[in-house]
Design a protein that fits this description.
Length: 346
C-alpha cells in the first residue's frame, strides 16, 4: 500500500465562532486570503466549521454563508462576475459489496467541466469542445470551476480527499510521449488536440466524459471510452458491449478498473497507478460539518476509502457556460499561473 502524503496545515482554515453575527465587510481580508488560496492551491482547502461544534443545521448555514461570500469575493478577484454557488443533491457513498469505496482522479461534472485551452492562446481551437455530452450525465450541466462539499457525516472509512496537480500531470505526459518539454502554448494545443480526438472518436467509444486516458493523449478507443471513476466497480454491461475484451480484466492482485488504469497510466506516463499516487497525490482530511473546496479545472481529485455512512452535500462554484471574454482571460491567466509554478524536469 502507498504511504499517504497529507496536505500541510495551510490547507486547513479556522472559522471564527461568531461568524454568523459578523458582516461580510468585517472579514474582507480573511475572505480575500481564502479566495486567493482556493484559486492557486495545488490541493483543496478545508474550512474547519466542525471545530465550532454548532450542530449540523447551524454548521450547514455557516457553510452556505461562507460559500456565498467566497464566491462573491472570487467574482471580483478573478473577474468572473457570473460565477455562482451551485448546491447539488445530497450524496451517500455506495460501496456495493465492499467495505469502502475509492474514487479515482476526475473532474466533477467531467462531461462539461474540464481543463481546455484558452482561445486567447490557441486561436484555432473550438470552444464548443468544452462539452462532451448534453445528456446522460450524473451531476448537473453547469461548468464547475471549483468543486466542494459540506460534510454531513465523514463516515467510518479513511474517507480522505486526494488531489492531483493536473497541469504537472499533463506536462509530464507530454514529455513522456513527445520527448520534449512543452512551452505553455504547446501544452495547451496538445491538450486541445487530445480533447478533439476524443470527440471525433465518440461515435465509436460512446463515452460522455473526458477520460484520463483521452486527456493524456492516448488514442486507443478503450482508453477514450471507459471513464475510470469508482475503483471497485465492475465494468458495466454497456461498457462490455463496446469493449468485450474488458471481460478478461482483473485478477487476484488487481481490480478490473485498476488493471485498465495501470494500462492507461503506463501508456501515457510510463508508470503504474501506484507510482502515479506516490508522485502526485496529496490527501486532505475533512471532518463532520466541515466545508471543503478545491479547484475543479486545474486540479483533479478522488475519494480514498470512503465508508458507507459517509454523506456529502456538494457545493460548487459554477458558471452556466464556459465561454466569453472574461472566461477566456481567466483561463489564459490561470494556465500561466500554474505553468509558471511547475518545477523544471531534471
Amino acid at each position: 500500500m502507498n504511504q499517504l502524503q497529507f496536505a500541510s496545515s495551510t490547507a486547513y482554515i479556522d472559522v471564527l465562532e461568531n461568524v454568523l453575527e459578523q458582516s461580510m465587510e468585517s472579514r474582507t481580508e480573511w475572505l480575500n486570503s481564502i479566495a486567493a488560496a482556493l484559486h492557486s492551491s495545488d490541493v483543496g482547502i478545508v474550512l474547519k466549521i466542525g471545530k465550532l461544534d454548532l450542530g449540523v443545521e447551524k454548521s450547514r448555514q455557516v457553510a452556505h454563508l461562507l460559500a456565498d461570500e467566497i464566491c462573491r469575493t472570487l467574482q471580483k478577484q478573478i473577474d468572473l462576475p457570473t460565477l455562482y454557488v451551485e448546491h447539488d443533491r445530497r450524496r451517500p457513498v455506495n460501496v456495493g459489496s465492499f467495505q469502502t469505496r475509492t474514487l479515482l482522479p476526475h473532474h466533477d461534472g467531467a462531461h462539461c467541466s474540464y481543463l481546455t485551452p484558452s482561445t486567447l492562446d490557441c486561436t484555432g481551437w473550438n470552444p464548443s469542445h468544452r462539452v462532451l455530452s448534453n445528456e446522460g450525465y450524473s451531476t448537473t450541466h453547469q461548468h464547475k470551476v471549483y468543486q466542494g462539499f459540506f460534510v454531513v457525516d465523514p463516515g467510518y472509512g479513511l474517507s480522505v480527499t486526494p488531489y492531483y496537480p493536473w497541469l504537472k500531470v499533463l506536462r509530464d505526459a507530454f514529455v513522456y510521449r513527445i520527448h520534449s518539454v512543452p512551452s505553455l502554448g504547446q501544452l495547451q494545443k496538445w491538450l486541445g488536440d487530445n480533447i478533439d480526438a476524443s470527440i471525433t472518436a465518440q461515435p465509436k467509444h460512446h463515452c460522455r466524459y473526458l477520460t484520463l486516458g483521452a486527456a493524456l493523449g492516448s488514442r486507443r478507443l478503450v482508453h477514450q471510452g471507459i471513464s475510470l471513476h469508482w475503483a471497485e466497480e465492475d465494468f458495466l454491461p454497456a461498457e462490455l458491449e463496446v469493449f468485450p475484451e474488458l471481460r478478461h480484466y482483473g485478477d487476484a492482485q488487481r481490480l478490473p478498473r485498476i488493471q485498465l488504469l495501470d494500462e492507461v497510466i503506463g501508456e501515457t506516463l510510463g508508470m503504474t497507478w501506484s507510482k502515479f499516487r506516490e508522485t502526485y497525490e496529496v490527501n486532505v482530511v475533512s471532518e463532520r460539518n466541515d466545508l471543503l473546496l478545491g479547484h475543479n479545472i486545474f486540479l483533479v481529485h478522488g475519494g480514498l476509502m470512503g465508508g458507507p455512512t459517509r454523506w456529502l452535500e456538494p457545493i460548487c462554484l459554477a458558471l452556466d457556460e464556459a465561454a466569453g471574454k472574461n472566461y477566456e482571460c481567466w483561463l489564459s491567466a490561470t494556465w500561466k499561473q500554474f505553468y509558471d509554478r511547475l518545477q523544471p524536469i531534471s
